[in-house]
Design brief:
Order of helices and strands: EHHHHHEHEHEEEH
CATH topology of the largest domain: Rossmann fold
Distance between the termini: 11 Å
Largest sheet: 6 strands, parallel
Strand content: 5-15%
Strand order of the largest sheet: 3-2-1-4-5-6
Shape: globular
CATH class of the largest domain: Alpha Beta
Helix content: 40-55%
CATH architecture of the largest domain: 3-Layer(aba) Sandwich
CATH superfamily of the largest domain: HAD superfamily/HAD-like
Number of domains: 2
Length: 235
C-alpha cells in the first residue's frame, strides 16, 4: 500500500535535545512558578513523575489529562484543579526559557514542508504527556507551524501514551488511515519503533537517539536528517 501519511515524534526528533538536560531545566522553571502556591519543589517533581506514570499506564478509559490531574490531586487535594490555569500560563510563558537547552534542526522544517508540498498528510505524534499549550510552544521552538500537521497529540486529546501500540492505533482511528499507508519517524527505539508492530513503516532518526535497552537498530531504516531526506524521496 502506498504511503500517504508521515508521523513525526517531536522531542529529540524534529526538536533536537538532550532529554535529561531538558527535563532538568523544565522542572526548575516550573518549581519556581508554582512554589508561591504551596507546591514544595522537591515533592512537586516526584509527584509530576507520578502523574506522568499514571498517563503512561492509562488504559484508554479516560483522557491522559484526566489521569494526570486525578493522580496529582491525590497528593495535593482538589485545589490542584483551581491551579490548572496557573500551570497553563507557565507553559505559554516561562516554559519557553527551556528552549535554551534545546538544539535546532533547520532540516526539520524543510522536511515537513516538503512532505506537505508533495501532498502527504503529516501528523505530530509526540508522546501526549503535555497540555496543548506546551506542545504548541515546543513546535515553535523547532521553527515549525502547527498548521503543517493534521493532528497534534497532547494530553487533552489522547487516551494512551508511548510505547503502548494503542497510542498509534488511536491516531490511525482519528485520521482514518490504515497502518500500511503510514510511516513513523522518531528517535526512541522503544517508544517510536513500536509503531512497526501495527504494520507501519518506521525510520529511526539517530541524531538524538534513545536506545535504553541497547537494541539492534540495524533492523530499522535509520540515520541522520540527510539520510531521512533521502529515505523520504523513496516513498
Amino acid at each position: 500500500m502506498k504511503i500517504t501519511t508521515v508521523l513525526f515524534d517531536l522531542d529529540g526528533t524534529l526538536l533536537p535535545m538532550d532529554q535529561d538536560e531538558f527535563v532538568k531545566s523544565y522542572f526548575k522553571l516550573l518549581a519556581k512558578k508554582v512554589a508561591p502556591l504551596g507546591y514544595d519543589p522537591a515533592s512537586l517533581i516526584d509527584n509530576i513523575w507520578a502523574g506522568t506514570a499514571a498517563m503512561v499506564k492509562n488504559d484508554g478509559s479516560r483522557k491522559n489529562e484526566e489521569a494526570f490531574w486525578a493522580q496529582f490531586a491525590k497528593f495535593y487535594g482538589d485545589k490542584v484543579y483551581d491551579d490548572i490555569p496557573v500551570f497553563d500560563k507557565f507553559y505559554s510563558e516561562e516554559f519557553n526559557l527551556a528552549k535554551d537547552v534545546c538544539g535546532f534542526a533547520p532540516n526539520a522544517k524543510k522536511i515537513v514542508d516538503g512532505l506537505c508540498e508533495r501532498g502527504f498528510e503529516v501528523v505530530l505524534a509526540t508522546n501526549p504527556i503535555f497540555p496543548p499549550v506546551a506542545t504548541l510552544s515546543r513546535i515553535s521552538w523547532a521553527g515549525l507551524s502547527a498548521e503543517s500537521f493534521s493532528l497534534i497529540t497532547n494530553y487533552s486529546n489522547s487516551s494512551y501514551c508511548k510505547p503502548n501500540p494503542k497510542y498509534y492505533q488511536e491516531i490511525l482511528s482519528k485520521i482514518g488511515k490504515a497502518p500500511e499507508e503510514c510511516l513513523m519517524v522518531g528517535n526512541d527505539v522503544e517508544e517510536d519503533m513500536i509503531a512497526q508492530s501495527l504494520g507501519m513503516k518506521v525510520f529511526l532518526l539517530t541524531d538524538c537517539i534513545i536506545n535504553k535497552k541497547d537494541r539492534d537498530i540495524s533492523v530499522y531504516p535509520h540515520g541522520d536528517f540527510e539520510a531521512l531526506a533521502d529515505y523520504l524521496q523513496t516513498i
